[in-house]
Amino acid sequence: SRFGVYAGSQLSTVTVSGSNSFLSFFHSGDIEFGGPGSLSVSSSFNMNVAPASNTFNVPLTFSGSTTGRSFYPNLVTYSDVTIDASGGAITVQTDLTCNVLTLTAGGLTIANGVEVVVASFNSSNSNVRSLTFGTGNWQVTGSGASWNCANSTNLTVSYPVGGNLLYFAASSSVSFYGGGKSWPYILNILTGSGTTSSTNVLTIEDGGNTFYAVSVGANSGKSRGIKFPGPYTTTILNDFILAGVSGALVYIGSTNASDRK
After folding, report:
1. For residue 213, which of 188, 189, 185 has the smallest C-alpha distance?
2. pLDDT confidence band for 141 (50 / 70 / 90)
3. Taking a C-beta distance cutoff of 8 angstroms, is the pair 193, 164 a contact?
4. Are 170 and 147 in contact (CB under 8 A)?
5. How far apart are CA 161 and CA 156, in angstroms?
6. How far apart are CA 51 and CA 29, in angstroms?
């Protein structure tokens, strides 16, 4: 079955279910969904809108155990997107921009070539779930614990070898909790001003993580840094690039004060 919404300016709580249903929104101008409600979808989801200034300001949750579903974000900026689909699987088929992306249960796949921009990503729980990166890049724009997989029990992570980049681009320092999993190429491109060792620091907070590669570079007079979790082991499979310049040094350190030299 197909359920379409063709007009309207505000969305209250809506639940769409059915293993073969496909939810589509069609609109030709600016669109803004807001209010206290939420949208829970156990089907595929296609935000089929014209290129305009579009926002979706209610939580969007994918639920249900159906596999093979698709999410087409299509030129819309979302607030919170949650995958809470035990036994189910969702593939993001077009570029996604949202505030908080949460993987609670089920499978989340990013199709090849799809770009993802999020303020934060969270998958810290013990439910069975999987995260599959495509060849497109991710940009994480939030500060603080903007990548949180601290509890990685039953989490499976896969990525194309050398095929995508995970940028951290906040205006202040960031904490990365990887839960001891294997991650793609990460880059510190934090944009806060300053030239001290406490500025623009990407901190790997937990041990046992493996990265395809790591890069930290200074830019426009701004220092950047990276801290690793002492006394734990972090593995970098390929390049480890520290590219500071005069007046904007790159710092490397440990979360354990006794390890710092």
Report:
1. 185
2. very high
3. no
4. no
5. 16
6. 8
